[in-house]
Amino acid sequence: MTIRRRLLSLLLPALALLMLIGGVVDYRVAILTTRNAYDQALANTAAAFAANIRIEQGQLRFMPAGAGGALESGAIYAIVGPARELISGTPQLADSEAASARVPGRTNYWNAQLQGQLWRAASVVTRTGAGPVHITVAETLERRAHTQQVMLIGKLLVDFAELDLTLLLVWIAVYYGLRPLDRLTDQVERQSSRRLQSFDEAQVPGELRALIVAFNRVLELLHDAAQAQQRFVADAAHQMRTPVAGLLAQLELLQQDPGAAALSVQLGSLQRGIQQLARSANQLLALARAEPVAALHENLQPVSLKLLVEELVERYIDRADRAGIDLGAEALAATVTGDAGLLEDQLENLIDNALKYAPRGGHVTVRSGVDGAAAYLEVEDDGPGIPDSERMRVRERFYRMPGSAGIGCGLGLAIVDEIARVHGAAFSIGAGPHGRGARMRVRFGAAS
Amino acid sequence: MRILLIEDDELVADAVVRGLSIAGFTVDHAASAQSGRAALRTEHFDLAVVDIGLPDADGLSLLGALRNEGTAMPVLMLTARDTLADKIRAFELGADDFLMKPFEQAELAARCRALIRRAGLTPSGVVRLGGLTIDLNGHQLQVNGAVVELTRREWLVLESLAHNLGRIVTKDRLMQALAGWEQDLTPNAVETHVSRLRSKLGSAAVIRAIRGLGYRLDEAGEMPE
């Protein structure tokens, strides 16, 4: 689960609930406020009626006049004298007033069921010379209900918009608040597996600094290990090749010496043995160079595959001649970003492998080019080929195909595979032209 | 022809000295960069064979120092480190050739010969290879002592090959060399010129075709099988 999702899943439901409670409270308050306002208006009307009550010839009379007696449409009233006689208005309302819980000295409010409708009633008591007169005014709840409905809808709309906006703002804040993490992730991803550049500790937020410091320390260790391994491989190469070169050169002289003519068979075996030793040493070193740890070292540069093909074909042409194999090139322009030394090892092993298995009179063709967007290196031979079932296994270290001829220690294709891997390239083994021989191809991610 | 070998490994040095001597060179040996520099200052050599991994100084810095002093003598670098980067660096510093250990004596001798021949071109302009005598200044070819007439284009091909003895001359480069003389030159045209040139050389030397790459002028005997 991402931190972003975690934050949102913690924040959003809590916020939504909070907004909901807020909405309910707001609504209740609004209902109360409207009720009070309407009640007050009703009480005011009742009070205004009181001013229109006169005593004429000892009789209480209600004389609606001017604004004081105006009633809202749909409102009713009842004026009851001191002896509970109805002076004016609706008798049922007077009855309802009589039944209501009166509190002396205060405006009295209650809900009444009259004429099959719900009413809100307010009554006041006014003192006259003839005694207390109860004035009751009532209106249907329709208007209030309508106002409350409008308020409810308005409130809901506003709350809904507010909720949306809040959630959106929270989402945006979480999204942008975590951007430094994204940037760091990008940076880590951009560092290809082969670069060991440490990260700038000042560029990350405080929360991540300790992590980055620790990460940088690990990178440093890796960097040291990579350098140590590279140094070791370079030293080992020198230490092993020089005596082997000396042995082979001495042996070559001995083979030309007429005094050693009788030993030519043994000298030939000795030479093959030393050549095999030299080759194994070379391959072990190449494999060590291609080890992920050693290859972490930053040696990336644009490498022309075309030049590499031309260079290596020239290097191997004499060996091919001696083996009676027609070695050729089809070098088309292609450039990749990679480790020149490793790519050279890779192509050398492919050519070496092909020359080992192509028969006398056979052909080996080394190619470079761009296929689609991807640069490739390819070596094709018309030797025995590699059956489908063996195509994965031959990439394993020290694996040799059953019955494979010639000398070898089973490292060549493992090296090719390893170097393809550190370059993010795909190494594939197929059949040569007309289904004969082998076609080995290294396809690089994208041509640059 | 005198060669100075600067190599610290005794086994290699001993074999190279003997091998090159058998091949007809006079070989002196220095076991360190310092003694090598001393020998080069006092004596004349036609070629230096220098190991990159010397105990007292890097063979590449020795090469750089020699070139800084303006020495034009050809230098062949030997190395046990098989990286193209070293090779590129060596050529940048002015090496004439580069050979990796282990190597074959015959190949070392052939390359030494080619380097000395190439270096000898500048003053005399004459290249001798097997039965060929190529006078690059006089624009004349002799095959087994007899002057052979060449067309302009055949001569340009031969000239490119002779300037790069022991090395492959790519078809692209041959096309560039001929481009001034033919407007729409095709790779096939190059092949035609090469094959005509071949028939004129007879068996005195070989123009070895490397499929897809180019040609190399070899001595007739250098071509195995």
CATH superfamily of the largest domain in chain B: Response regulator
The CATH architecture designation of the largest domain in chain A is: 2-Layer Sandwich
CATH topology of the largest domain in chain A: Heat Shock Protein 90
Mean pLDDT of chain A: 85
Low-confidence stretches of chain B: none
The fraction of residues in strands of chain B falls at 15-25%
What would your notes on this structure say?
The complex is a heterodimer of chains A (448) and B (225). Chain A is built from 10 helices and 14 strands. With 448 residues, chain A is of the alpha+beta class. Chain A has 3 domains: 145 residues, Beta-Lactamase; 110 residues; 150 residues, Histidine kinase-like ATPase, C-terminal domain (Heat Shock Protein 90). In chain A, the strands form 4 sheets. In chain A, strands 4-3-7-6-5 form a 5-stranded antiparallel β-sheet, sandwiched between helices. In chain A, strand 1 and strand 2 form a beta hairpin. Chain A is rod-shaped and about 170 Å long. The model of chain A has no long low-confidence stretch (mean pLDDT 85). Chain B has 2 domains: 119 residues, Rossmann fold; 98 residues, Winged helix-like DNA-binding domain superfamily/Winged helix DNA-binding domain (Arc Repressor Mutant, subunit A, Orthogonal Bundle). Chain B is built from 8 helices and 12 strands. In chain B, the strands form 3 sheets. A 5-stranded parallel β-sheet of chain B has the order 2-1-3-4-5, with helices on both faces. In chain B, strands 6-7-8-9 form a 4-stranded antiparallel β-sheet. In chain B, strands 10-12-11 form a 3-stranded antiparallel β-sheet. In chain B, helix 1 crosses helix 5, helix 6 crosses helix 7 and helix 6 packs across helix 8. The longest helix of chain B is centred in the middle third of the chain and has 20 residues. Chains A and B meet through helix 5, helix 8, strand 9 and helix 9 of A and helix 1 and helix 5 of B.
